[in-house]
Every structure is written in structure tokens, then in C-alpha cells.
Specification:
globular, five-stranded antiparallel sheet, 619 residues, mainly beta, nine-stranded antiparallel sheet, 8 helices, single chain
């Protein structure tokens, strides 16, 4: 073969081999071979060094929750919340709209007048931890009746009910109707039931006392009985006779003493301000605001110093209960007085702009007729103004000691004053100069020329200022007179007795701390004015909130702290929208349950005010 032929053959063979090789790259893969046996496991390595401990986490806690227990009809506020030892919850529908016409199946009555009632069929001393909210009323029917999350609201009585079926045990004058002491003439059909207090006479029976808040005011008593299914009936009805104390007025909230006597609070009958004593216009012939009170006492003219006190209804279960006004606890716009388990210490709230928190310590157990009156001095937390987080340290300033008989003698000196004594630009009653002279320790009252009143001008000094003009007396002695609508104050007696008194009073719980709770309807005016002892921000304002104070040794209060506040007040909106419907709106009264939860009644501008439940243990 020639060289050229050999070369040609080699090149051809190379080309063929390249074609075959390239074709093999695109062919199918061959089958996998069998898996080989596992190798022997190697030795374990040494443990690594432990890392550094992490930072401790924050303690978990459940979120505090407001539960809507019930709503009341259009135009009404929630008043009179009272929880009995058997777990029955009473509350009232105060001044509902008279345009309410809708009825529901339980009562078959419209809520168009003042209404006293109870949530029947449920024991509030035996509730589950979690309760589903009652709905915000949506339909016209829901807006005109009581809607509740638990039980059924049963009407016990309404304004002007006579209970005619009870015969001689009925009330021909009408429930909540007031008459002149001497004339016997009807003055007013009161549409504003407030405080309820229940005094038990046995299982499922007792007397229900109810305040009626107006000019004049009063207290009703109904003997009520409960059947085996929780339905209540009225066996007797009466209006308590206040003639022996010159009548009563503006009966707001209250409490029942540990010895079983209702305490009724005379509130807005007092005509004074944070910067004044009793208004000089009281006996001005042109003043018409006291006309109903004048009708009560006619032909006598009413003495302002006979009103504005805590009234104890003694002999509560007798045929003729006896009201006793305790002048010793002071005269001011009483919202509520509550007695501690020591049966001597009483705390009392002043519901006004520029009000004072008062304390009274009686000289003897179960006898409020003599003792010592104090006013609270507050010191706000430094650098803090947010209502939801700002608290106050409390000390107590002694005002004076006294007894009912001595104070009543001072009051009687003003009995003869009437409209003929009025002089424009002067006053017939105590003056700021009188109170200042007392606070300064002067030996005599100032003359009229030096600003004193004619009754005491130049007379030796006494302690009447502390008991007749209690706010000014407290303020001039250094107490804090800056609360705005300091409303109901409340404890649970048994929780306080166990925590402070060391008595095992609450089953299945070791109570180591107990509190007095205080409702504040408005965090406004003197609470946010950048003056004095209290200077909070204006974030919450009229939405209000609830405070509490721990009960220390001897039931003393040394610290007040916020518990729950309403929403941010939205001043750019109007009506109910200013406060969130899912939050508090001007809380009025507060009661404390045996398990430590609290029940809060609203006096707000929601279309349908709410009865709330709140669990402070989640704080």
C-alpha cells in the first residue's frame, strides 16, 4: 500500500472513531449497579462545650379583659350594682328615656321610667373564668331593653309602682314618690333609682333598700323573696320616713355596713365649689333651684347644713327604720361611704370638681356618731402624667374630732335663716374667711367687716368648719382637693378581712392583698389643669377610669394606682363616638366580687351604657 493510501486509511479510521465516540455521548445511561454494603460506623466524637445561658425572658401574663355583662336601655345609666352573699346581682336602670315603648317576654313592661331589678337565675359567686360578651345593641328592640350576657333581668319595681295587690303591705304613695313633710303634698315622682343595698333575713329573702336621687330624695325598702328557680317577688314595700332628720336629698350611691345597716349618700345637695363655701344664693328669693327642697320643708325654709351627709338606716329590718345622719363624716357631695372590716374606719368619696378623698375613724365599733375626720394628701409619681400608669402616694391630714350631737347644735344655729335674711353681696352662711381662721388656729371667728359670717362673728373658735364646710377645711389644712367626679368606692369585706385581719374568709384562696376600688367618671378639669398635686395628661378625659388602693395595716391607704382606663378621648368627634364603645365610658360605681373581679357601672354618653366585669388579677 502506498504511503498516501496508508495515510488515507489512518485518517478514515480516526474519523470513524470520532463519530462513534460522539454518538455515545447522546446515548441512554446504563442501569445502576447494586448498592454496596454499609461500612462500619465510626466512633462518636467528644461532646462540645455548653454555650452561655440566655437572658431571662419576661414573665408571661394574661391580657386584662373587660367583659360586657349587660347594657341598659336608651337614655339610662347603670346604677345600684349590689352583690349579695348568695350571689344575686341587683342593678338599676336610672332615668331611661320616656320614649322607650318596647317590652320583652320576661317582664312585659317598657323601660320608660326608673327601674329596680336583678339578674335572675345566675349565681355571681360561682362564675366561670371566661364569659362571652353581651352584644352591643344593634336593633331598636335591643336598644330599648336590658340585654345581658348572663341570666335574665327581672324588674322588681318601677317609679310610682303601688303594689296594690299587697293590700296594707303595698305602697299607695308610689315607689320613689316624695311628699312634703308638713304639707303632705306630692312634690316629685323620682325617676332616678341609684344605690341598692340588700339586708338578708334568711336564705332567699331579705330587704332591698334603694336610693332615689333627686330634690328631694329618699330611700325605699322592699321585702323580697326568691323561689327555687331564681324568680323574685315583692312581699312588702315602703318609703323610709326621713321626717325626723328634716328630709333627705340627692341620695346617690351607698353601701351596707358590716353590721347590716344601709348607708345612703346625700350628694349634689351641697352648693359649694373648690373655691367657695356654701353658695350665698341659697336663700336668695330669686333662686329657683331649691324650690323642691323648700316644698319639702315648708313652711320652714331649708337649712343647707342639714343636708350633704352619710345617712345610716338603723333598725333596718324593723317596722319603722330610723335614719341617722352622721355629721361626723363631714358635709360634702357624698358619692359613697364604705366601712372597713374593723367596723370603725370609713372611706368616703366626694363627687365634684375639686373633690377630696376623706377618711373617718370612729371612736367605737359599729358607732359612727363620734370620731375623727381626715383628708387625703396625694403626691403624684415623679415625671409621670399618663393616666394608665401614674399613681399617687397618700398621707392623711387630721381635720378634727367631733360627735353628732355637738355638730347638730352648730347646725341648728342656721335653722332660722330664710329669704328675708338675704343681702346681695353677702352670705348668711359660713365664709372662706371663717374657714381660714379655723385652719390658721385663730382663737375667734372674724368679724363681718373682716369677711366673717354674722352667725359666728367674733365668737370663740370651734371645729364646725371641719364638719360643715369639709372640703374647704381639708383644702386649707393641706389635703388634695383636685379629684374630678370621684365616684363609688368599694371593697369586698371578706377579702379585706382575710388580707388585713388574718381571718380565713375566702374558701379555696389564700388572699394576701385586698384593695379598695374607686371609679372616676371624668379625668378632666382639676385633674389635668397643670396645677396642684394632680397633673395628669388629657388623653383619657371624659372616658374615665378605675383606681385602687391596697389596704395596709389597720386598713390604712398609703398608695393609689390606676387599674383600667377608658380609651383615648376623641374630642374631634361627637356623642358616643368620643369614647370607644368597647372600653369604659365614664365609670360611675364599682363593686368587688368574692373572687376579686370587679363590676363597673357606666354613667356615660354611650347610647346604651354598659355594666362591665373586669379581672384585676391579670395585672
Amino acid at each position: 500500500m502506498s504511503i498516501s493510501a496508508i495515510k488515507t486509511f489512518k485518517l478514515s479510521a480516526l474519523a470513524i472513531s470520532l463519530v462513534v465516540g460522539l454518538s455515545a455521548c447522546d446515548g441512554d445511561d446504563g442501569k445502576d449497579g447494586q448498592t454496596g454494603a454499609n461500612g462500619t460506623q465510626g466512633l462518636s466524637g467528644k461532646d462540645g462545650t455548653n454555650g452561655n445561658d440566655g437572658v431571662d425572658g419576661i414573665n408571661g401574663q394574661s391580657a386584662p379583659v373587660l367583659t360586657r355583662l349587660a347594657t341598659v336601655p336608651t337614655g339610662a345609666e347603670v346604677t345600684g350594682a349590689f352583690l349579695t352573699e348568695e350571689g344575686d346581682l341587683f342593678f338599676n336602670v336610672q332615668h331611661p328615656s320616656d320614649a322607650n315603648t318596647i317590652t320583652e317576654g320576661v317582664n312585659n313592661k317598657p323601660y320608660d321610667k326608673g327601674t329596680v331589678g336583678v339578674l335572675r337565675g345566675v349565681n355571681f359567686n360561682n362564675l366561670p373564668k371566661t364569659i362571652v360578651n353581651s352584644p352591643v345593641p344593634d336593633t331598636e328592640e335591643e336598644r330599648q331593653v336590658v340585654v345581658s350576657a348572663l341570666g335574665e333581668y327581672q324588674i322588681i319595681g318601677q317609679t310610682n309602682d303601688t303594689f296594690a295587690d299587697l293590700g296594707a303591705k303595698g305602697l299607695p304613695g308610689g315607689l320613689g314618690v316624695h311628699y312634703g313633710i308638713f304639707s303632705g303634698d306630692k312634690i316629685i315622682e323620682n325617676n332616678a333609682p341609684d344605690f341598692n343595698g340588700y339586708v338578708s333575713t334568711g336564705e332567699g329573702e331579705g330587704y332591698l333598700f334603694t336610693n332615689w336621687e333627686s330634690y328631694p330624695g329618699g330611700v325605699s325598702r322592699m321585702k323580697i323573696e326568691k323561689d327555687g328557680f331564681g324568680n323574685w317577688s315583692v312581699a312588702e314595700a315602703m318609703m323610709v320616713n326621713f321626717d325626723n332628720v328634716g328630709g333627705t336629698a340627692a341620695n346617690c350611691f351607698g353601701s351596707v355596713s358590716p353590721w347590716g345597716t344601709p348607708l345612703s349618700s346625700e350628694e349634689w345637695i351641697v352648693r359649694s365649689t373648690v373655691d367657695s363655701t356654701t353658695d350665698a344664693s341659697w336663700n336668695d328669693p330669686a333662686n329657683t333651684s331649691t324650690d323642691n327642697l323648700e316644698a319639702l320643708t315648708a313652711p320652714d325654709f331649708p337649712n343647707p347644713y342639714r343636708y350633704g351627709y352619710t345617712v345610716e338606716i338603723t333598725k333596718a329590718t324593723s317596722d319603722a327604720p330610723v335614719p341617722v345622719k352622721h355629721y361626723t363624716i363631714g358635709r360634702y357631695e357624698h358619692e359613697n361611704s364604705t366601712v372597713m372590716p374593723d367596723r370603725r374606719t370609713v372611706y368616703s368619696s366626694q363627687d365634684d370638681t375639686g373633690g377630696v378623698l376623706f377618711k373617718f375613724i370612729a371612736n367605737a365599733d359599729e358607732d359612727l356618731s363620734s370620731g375623727t375626720l381626715y383628708g387625703a394628701k396625694l403626691v403624684q409619681d415623679a415625671g409621670s402624667t399618663e393616666p394608665a400608669t401614674t399613681g399617687f402616694d397618700v398621707t392623711w391630714i387630721e381635720l378634727a374630732s367631733g360627735d353628732n350631737a355637738t355638730i347638730e347644735a352648730w347646725i341648728s344655729e342656721y335653722d332660722g335663716i330664710n329669704t328675708s335674711d338675704y343681702v346681695d353681696g353677702e352670705t348668711s352662711y359660713m365664709t372662706l374667711a371663717d374657714v381660714q381662721a379655723w385652719a390658721d388656729g385663730d382663737t375667734n371667728y372674724p368679724s363681718v367687716a373682716n369677711g366673717g359670717s354674722a352667725i359666728t362673728a367674733g365668737q370663740p373658735m370651734d371645729d364646725r368648719a371641719a364638719f360643715l364646710e369639709s372640703r374647704q377645711a381639708a383644702k386649707m389644712k393641706g389635703a388634695t382637693a383636685e379629684w374630678r367626679k370621684l365616684e363609688g368606692i368599694s371593697i369586698n369585706h371578706d377579702r379585706a378581712l382575710e388580707a388585713v385581719g388574718g381571718v380565713d374568709a375566702i374558701a379555696n384562696e389564700d388572699v394576701t392583698a385586698a384593695y379598695m376600688y374607686m371609679g372616676i367618671a371624668d379625668l378632666d378639669n382639676t385633674l389635668i389643669d397643670d396645677e396642684g398635686d394632680i397633673q395628669l395628661s388629657a388623653r383619657v378625659k371624659d372616658c374615665g377610669g378605675v383606681y385602687r388602693a391596697k389596704l395596709e395595716e389597720n386598713y390604712n391607704l398609703a398608695r393609689i394606682e390606676p387599674v383600667v382606663m377608658g380609651s383615648t378621648y376623641r374630642s374631634s368627634l361627637t356623642g358616643a363616638l368620643r369614647c370607644d364603645v368597647e372600653q369604659l365610658s365614664q365609670p360611675d360605681n364599682v363593686i368587688v366580687m368574692r373572687d376579686g373581679r370587679i363590676i363597673i357601672g357606666e354613667d356615660g354618653f354611650q347610647e346604651n351604657n354598659t355594666l362591665w366585669m373586669y379581672d384585676p388579677k391579670s395585672l
